[in-house]
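Thread title: Can someone regenerate the structure for this chain?

I was given the following input by a collaborator and told the matching structure tokens would be attached. They weren't. Posting the sequence so someone can regenerate them.
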Amino acid sequence: MKNPKILRNMFISVGVLFALARLLAAGTIDGVPQPPIITFDAPGAGTGPGQGTQGLTINPGGVIAGDYVDASSVFHGFRRAQDTGTITPFDAPGAGTAPYEGTVAESINSAGVIAGLYTDQDAVFHGFVRDTEGTFTTFDAPGAGTGFDQGTEAGNINTRGVTAGSYIDSSNVNHGFVRTPDPGGTITPFDVTGAGAGPGQGTFVTAGDGLNEAGATVGYYIDSNDVAHGFVRDTSGTITTFNVTGAGTDPGQGTGAFGINSAGTIVGGWIDASNVEHGFVRDANDGTITTFDVPGGGTGPGQGSFPVNINASGAMTGDYVDASDVSHGFLRAADGTITATFDVPGGGTGSGQGTFAFCNNPRDAITGYYVDSNNAWHGFLRAAPQPTPRPHPTPAPRP
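Best answer:
Regenerated them for you:
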């Protein structure tokens, strides 16, 4: 199964389970205690390379959704409760049971409704929405292909129940769509002007973080030269494209928008002419782009900084890859300060291993996964930072 999250959004070459979880202190930064990290594995998750558990999305209440891959390399969705840590696995009706088929949960809204995709027995993708009672609605975008690795991905859902995602047609070209929550679900496909029309080209709505509460979507398009460019589509359907100054112009390089918050601020990544990754923030008001690199990020091909989500306050999370090709998580405040870098205990220290942060909620609780020394995946929750206590004023002495 092609999971756009695992493939770093595809444009880069691009009982309670607490018996298995560990509550771990995360140390201090500049003397400030850091939040604890909870690790978890879904029941039935495999332990081989490319198997295990991935936390992909977290809502304001702290409920996590994601996927796990079993010992037969079949994908399954899960929901993890905030209060008990209980993990509920699920499979979309019609999901295949062969290796790399199955169900992937990619987005959860404030009510706990989940959107994602499943792959059937013919390796065709279909979108789904799972309500809080566990009832599924499945759908296919008009024009979606029905061949191998074609079909529909519902990558995002907001509080109003609007979904957004991408579909691949019979010519293996990608297109974006937005789906309304009305009965029957009206689907509006769209393409960014300039998107290529060849296999692997077209319009990609970022999964997980590419839709905000107002209904604006972000992503990237791949042109006829296989170069990526960022875009934002507002609630009226108007599309604005942009490129980061310094982004490379060779195949596999360029600019991608990966997250948009309720204010319309966009976070994303860009790849330079040396194939090094960098982060950017795009201002919602005037489109000004500010680039950044997380300290410790490597400067070789495939290394550097990769932000993937931005919350309502403008804080963002993601990972950076060091000079040894090991990944580490980070949290960046709206003012540009890197407030935390972190490694989940148990993360491997080999190439392609380490910590991958995927989503921070409004309180900056972060979910993601880590890859261990055996290249198996495990989910994690980095708890929300506790507010700094305010000193109480000393009462004035009585006369």
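The first strand starts at residue 22 and ends at 24.
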